[in-house]
């Protein structure tokens, strides 16, 4: 559970980091190279004016060998690129809905500030404290590209190609489908994923869906919806000063 939750946080950091870094693509034919570069430049343009981002999160993992879909998880993310790469990210995961009854009870919280990671589980009153650099030790460059959220590392570790235009249908049926460009990332070296697909909103210039394929074929789908760009939140309270009381502290 720890590894999976942290991998989701790393993926989000990676994708959102693309918005604030010089864009460049590699791999594929000349035409796909140019198209991928165009999409990445659009993301970069959006990122240059991005100071805050709030979005709803939906994710679901499928065990392809057993043909079993895990129950989907929902939550909310708070993101700020910060200054000089000091990124801040908070992910609150809600209790699984029972039937048609939605819930906003938080069962897991991940907070990332710079290199520091905190994973809080309120039901067991436990706070795991670790770091991106520690969690990334011993991983290949393909994995490091995801973990460290570095576009330079992504260019070094992945071939990025343009796939097509596609409408994303949100799991929340109250939200209209959205036109996107699809990018495909293939690692140059072995890592936790053999491929990653990213759906970039044509109207918002932000990645709104990701498809992560593990080496064993298992697939995780993530969707971001209800995007609120530059809606300021209390970053000090939600991230900088996040320190729940009366918890068991575990060093990762």
Q: Layout of helices and strands, plus pairs?
A:
Blueprint: H1 2-17, H2 30-48, E1 53-63, E2 68-69, E3 73-80, E4 88-94, E5 106-113, E6 116-121, E7 126-131, H3 132-135, H4 141-148, H5 151-157, E8 158-168, E9 178-187, E10 193-201, E11 207-214, E12 219-229, H6 235-240, E13 248-251
Parallel strand pairs: 7-13
Antiparallel strand pairs: 1-2, 1-3, 1-12, 3-4, 4-5, 5-6, 6-7, 8-9, 9-10, 10-11, 11-12
Helix pairs in contact: 1-4, 4-5
Notes on the structure:
The chain is an alpha+beta fold and 252 residues long. It has a single domain, classed as Clam (outer membrane lipoprotein receptor (LolB), chain A), CATH 2.50.20.10. The chain is 24% helix and 40% strand. The chain is built from 6 helices and 13 strands. The chain has helices at 2-17, 30-48, 132-135, 141-148, 151-157, 235-240, and strands spanning 53-63, 68-69, 73-80, 88-94, 106-113, 116-121, 126-131, 158-168, 178-187, 193-201, 207-214, 219-229, 248-251. Strands 1, 2, 3, 4, 5, 6, 7, 8, 9, 10, 11, 12 and 13 form a 13-stranded mixed beta sheet that branches. Helix 1 (2-17) crosses helix 4 and helix 4 runs antiparallel to helix 5 (151-157). The longest helix has 19 residues, at 30-48. The protein is globular and about 55 Å long. Residues 138-151 have low confidence and may be disordered.
